[in-house]
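Exercise: predict the fold of this chain.
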Amino acid sequence: MKKTFALATLFLTNSTIFSQEKLEQTGKVSLGLQGFELSYEHPFAKTFIWESSLGAGVGMNATKNGVEYNFNIPNVAPFITTGANWMYNFDKRVAKEKDTKNNAANYLGLQTKFSFGNDGSINFQN
């Protein structure tokens, strides 16, 4: 009897761990070769998320002939980003009892980014 109860409890607990039926507010920290970013996701409709971020990344030099990225730690370029994501298959994932933890779903997004870099690195004369 104890084994049956333990297995039933384990099964029921395990199956409800991943059952998130609506989008949730989440924060995240991203760290990579191009810099770091702090983000916050806020649901504003049943299948839409607004994401805002701030961070610092590598610098960039734009010339007439191309673009050059600089990995210069003292001269990082701070930035802010904001955008909206439409989680188009979130409801389907919930119905199929798939993992939706941390707003896991396919999405289409539109994002804008503003960098506070140095204007002196833009040179179209060369």
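Check your answer against the key: The helical segments are 2-17, 90-95.
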